[in-house]
Design goal:
Number of strands: 30
Helix content: under 10%
Strand order of the largest sheet: 6-7-3-9-10-1-13
Largest sheet: 7 strands, mixed
Oligomer: single chain
């Protein structure tokens, strides 16, 4: 068996695996722990509530993933066992994440937490990952099985959450309403695996996440969008390399949508200029290749708008549009790089995730209301710098421009009803 460290990955041969989530048994200050699994698509989201396998839904409808039982030994250890059969995993499922959660305590109170993978065909123990940095978390993403070049691999993740199973699952797209029950096969019993010695393996380099082109949302007229400024004919400027230019058409005061597009790679920056050529507000600031993005700019209308472009001899295009051209957020959206969407619903929660494609792993989202009177007059909706940025923040009632201002990679946004307004049936233990 191979022990891997946080972030490490290795191939997992065979077609069927058994996975044990092991820890100290509950009691004497140690809380109960539950194991679960989520089946995720290429965007890192579930396709529906049925893609969560947990105590109230122990077998996936496809039969590919199941909770098979709990086993204790004489050393006060307990293991929740799961099984994964790759022949039954549906083609659009790209990742299966294994999690642990506790309703009545934190993982800093749980000694000996680890996850091990065993070949169902041979009984060989393939991988073990021990969590040694738990503190106040109430849920953990322990590890994940993922497709890579036609084969499956296992990665030790070790990402903690302070929101329990409910918050962790909702971050991956679980709505939390009571699901429609699907006929499933009865779980099969399991036996505990032996505990031989282990050998350390350094963490290999993580594979880069697969990048997918996400089309920009179509611009469509929106009555609430007109609250952010008067309509006007769109203005377009095309150029190459670095330059400063003045927008030579009249623009009304208010929030303007600024679309930026650059073919090529390298650093690309677009900023407004104030009196004396002082830098004003950043409208694009990226190293993404073939960048297409959208930002907002508060324009007071007192003097013509001047913009500065910094680029290394690539062709670019900048288009300025009125607020009425914004696309609606709805219940959710996904994209790459900077964007602006319109929220028109009631107050709720905004869940955001970023899969970064560079070392700049920062996710920033801002909200601008119709009463905005400056570029710095906004509500922060996400402000996260982490290895896998995720956020959950209050979302004010619309109309509100939701501005993804910093996202060097692929992101998702989802609007949720506040927890206090939801039914807890799905999460109530059976």
């Amino acid at each position: 068996m191979t022990e891997i460290v946080k972030g490490g990955n290795l191939p997992v041969p065979g077609q069927a695996w058994r996975i044990a989530v092991v820890r100290r048994d509950a009691g004497d200050g140690v809380p109960e722990v539950d194991a679960s699994a989520l089946l995720l698509d290429a965007s890192g989201r579930v396709r529906g509530d049925g893609d969560l396998v947990f105590y109230n839904q122990p077998v996936h409808a496809s039969g590919a993933v199941r909770l098979t039982g709990q086993v204790r030994d004489g050393e006060r250890r307990v293991a929740d066992w799961l099984e994964i059969d790759t022949e039954r995993v549906e083609p659009d499922v790209q990742r299966i994440v294994i999690t642990a959660s506790s309703e009545h305590g934190t993982f800093g109170q749980v000694p000996g937490l680890h996850i091990r993978t065993v070949s169902a065909a041979t009984g060989e123990q393939l991988a073990l990952y021990e969590v040694d940095d738990a503190s106040t978390e109430t849920a953990f993403l322990l590890g994940e099985f993922y497709r890579r070049d036609g084969a499956w691999k296992f990665r030790a993740v070790g990402q903690g959450y302070a929101s329990g199973l409910v918050g962790l699952a909702e971050d991956f797209g679980i709505v939390g309403d009571d699901p429609v029950e699907a006929p499933v096969e009865a779980p099969r019993p399991s036996e505990p695996a032996p505990l031989p010695g282990v050998t350390k393996l350094p963490a290999p380099e993580l594979p880069a996440p697969a990048a997918s082109e996400v089309p920009a949302p179509a611009a469509g007229a929106s009555a609430p969008g007109r609250l952010f400024g008067a309509d006007f004919p769109e203005y377009t400027k095309e150029g190459e390399g670095s330059q400063v230019f003045t927008v030579d058409v009249p623009l009304p005061p208010g929030l303007l949508l600024v679309d930026t597009e650059r073919r090529g790679e390298g650093y690309f920056c677009v900023q407004s200029l104030e009196e004396g050529d002082k830098y004003g507000y950043s409208l694009a600031n990226t190293n993404l290749k073939n960048f297409k993005g959208r930002s907002v700019l508060w324009f007071d209308g007192k003097v013509p708008l001047r913009l500065r472009v910094d680029d290394e001899d690539n062709k670019w295009k900048i288009t300025i549009r009125p607020g009425s051209a914004v696309a609606k957020l709805g219940r959710g959206a996904k994209g790459r790089g900077a964007d602006v969407l319109l929220h028109t619903g009631p107050a709720g929660e905004l869940l955001g995730t970023l899969r970064a494609v560079s070392d700049h792993e920062y996710f920033g989202v801002r909200g601008y209301g119709p009463a905005t009177r400056g570029n710095h007059d906004y509500t922060s909706l996400a402000n996260v710098a982490a290895e896998h940025p995720r956020s959950r923040e209050p979302l004010p009632a619309g109309p509100l421009l939701v501005v993804v201002e910093s996202a060097e990679g692929d992101w998702t946004l989802e609007v949720r009803t506040p927890k206090e307004q939801r039914s807890g049936g799905f999460w109530r233990r059976g």
